[in-house]
Design a protein that fits this description.
The chain is α+β, with helices and mostly antiparallel strands. It contains ten helices and 28 strands. The two termini are about 35 Å apart.
């Protein structure tokens, strides 16, 4: 499933302050400056930005924020190094080193108040001399245009271009950038009519005109032809301000003979609507709840066998790798860090086979703490649950969709269900039916296929270009992402990135469908706790 076109990266501003810095100057106080770096895939650190220097201050609040591109689907490791800058223009190695701290951007953004307080340490310093003060990092999203324009467009008395029938009109919308026109939208084709009504559509204001109500727009109307040689009907050059004031405008064609009437009329009705992005919801207190479901079917082979997908050794198996790579990212966005964990296809101690059982043995409270808790309960279950089958998803998806329905305007929680499996689904029709039902819930489903099975049929669930259908019902939205683990050749960072890239757009899409606006950003308590 490809990422939707409007799933763009956003930027975050980091506001930095320090407390009780270690003083390195004998006759005055330190002159601190903070250098922010991000860790690269090869392990090196690259500069993101620097704060200004503040003179003689052990409790500085810096006014220069650090801007950094934010990617929900990646682990972005950050390092903050605090220097005592005694000599302007000197190299960094010539400055005194106060201390450093590390975190991840996801940890900062996903924390309850979107800020962390970290202890500064100095590598190599004795423990009694390693209290170098604290650094506080607060995150906020870089301000963006949060409006869209909804277009409801129709035409009347368009020119007839087809010899044996009426025109098949569509409209292309472009904006003027410098000296060139850039296409930003194209309507669908309405067949065989001179009085078309197109489906309404929405364009972000920033994409439409960058917020400039007088930015030049062009509406071009064509008659679609199957040979690709579409006939030009007419065009309008206008602005959003003019459209709002005069929604009915004549299409003009310069190739028509002088004195001829217009090529028809375009009726453009617009409505400005407030829009929100993923970080608007996160900064307002929306949480992401992770549920993990693990395959205990016999096709995995007995856990004691070295060729088992559940085999445990000093090296992580694929189930453990998938849990860690995806769980380590989503863990930041759940305040209490407690996650329900289920198994399916396993035989319980009482001899019954279950397709949705709590891995901790407590169906009333299947939660465990932190990603490490998921790994621990998985390891424990392998010693107590007998592998069985078949591979059924429907009961699991039904129960998890019910769990997700607690979300509301006041309690904003979006659920991600991670299913890790080694085989093809045996109750495909019932699973599709449950997914179609769940598509109206605040839920995304990630299916990670491990092992060498043929996962071809899984693509039926991961729809590209069309929504899933069950009988006469159609899914409200696409909520399933399938990824085969073996295709990533051990690159778990890329696995997580590809797997989670669509979650922000899915979360925003569900909130929008329910007309749920972000909450007001929570105010932290006066005294910051440690992180």
């Amino acid at each position: 499933m490809a990422a939707p076109p409007d799933h763009l990266q956003t930027a975050v501003l980091l506001h930095i302050s320090c407390m009780n810095l270690h003083n390195l100057d004998a006759l005055s106080k330190s002159d601190p400056e903070v250098i922010t770096e991000v860790k690269q895939p090869n392990g090196s650190w690259s500069l993101v930005g620097k704060t200004e220097k503040i003179i003689n201050n052990l409790n500085p609040t810096f006014s220069t924020p650090i801007s950094i591109a934010y990617y929900f689907e990646q682990v972005q490791n950050l390092r903050f190094r605090v220097l005592d800058v005694d000599h302007d223009g000197a190299t960094e190695s010539e400055q005194d080193y106060i201390g450093s701290a590390e975190s991840t951007l996801g940890n900062i953004v996903g924390s309850k108040y979107h800020e962390v307080s970290l202890t500064l340490t100095k590598p190599g310093a004795h423990s009694h001399a390693n209290d170098r003060g604290r650094i506080v990092i607060k995150a906020e999203e870089v301000p963006q245009l949060r409006q869209s324009v909804v277009f409801k467009m129709s035409g009347s008395k368009l020119d007839k271009k087809d010899f044996f029938g009426k025109s098949d009109p569509y409209v292309v919308i472009s904006k003027l950038r410098g000296q060139e026109w850039t296409k930003i939208h194209q309507t669908e084709v309405v067949m065989k009519t001179l009085d078309p009504t197109w489906n309404s559509f929405e364009i972000p204001l920033g994409q439409l005109n960058g917020g400039n109500m007088n930015g030049q727009l062009r509406f071009e109307c064509y008659d679609w032809d199957s040979d690709g040689k579409h006939d030009f009907i007419g065009s309008i050059d206008t602005t959003l301000s003019q459209i709002i004031e005069h929604p009915h405008m004549d299409l003009l064609n310069a190739k028509k003979k002088k004195g001829k009437e217009a090529s028809g009329t375009l009726h453009i009705h617009t409505e400005m609507v407030q829009t929100y992005g993923f970080l608007d919801y996160i900064f307002g207190g929306c949480q992401i709840s992770l549920i993990v479901a693990i395959d205990f079917t016999l096709s995995n082979r007995e856990p004691r066998e070295p060729n088992s997908l559940h085999f445990r050794s000093q090296n992580l198996n694929d189930y453990q790798k998938a849990i860690i790579s995806i769980g380590n990212i989503l863990e930041y966005y759940d305040y209490d860090k407690k996650f329900p964990v289920y198994g399916f296809g396993g035989q319980l101690p009482d001899g019954t086979t279950s397709h949705c059982f709590a891995l901790n043995g407590n169906p009333g409270n299947p939660e465990v703490a932190y990603v490490q808790g998921i790994l621990d309960v998985y390891n424990l279950a392998l010693d107590n649950i007998k592998l069985s089958g078949p591979t059924n998803f429907s009961e699991l998806i039904h129960n998890c969709s019910q769990y997700s329905r607690s979300a509301s305007q006041a309690a904003q929680i979006y659920t991600v269900l991670l299913i890790i499996t080694d085989g093809e689904i045996t109750d495909m029709d019932r699973t599709i039916d449950e997914i179609v039902s769940a598509s109206d819930d605040p839920l995304s489903i990630i299916i990670c296929g491990v092992g060498k099975a043929d996962f071809t049929n899984m693509n039926r669930l991961d729809c590209d270009g069309q929504l899933l259908r069950s009988g006469m019902r159609t899914a409200k939205r696409d909520i399933v992402q399938f990824v085969p683990f073996r295709e990533y050749n051990g690159d778990t960072a890329k696995l997580a990135a590809d797997t989670l890239a669509e979650v922000p757009a899915q979360l925003v899409g569900w909130m929008k469908s329910r007309k749920i606006a972000p909450l007001v950003r929570p105010v932290p308590p006066p005294v910051l706790g440690s992180t």
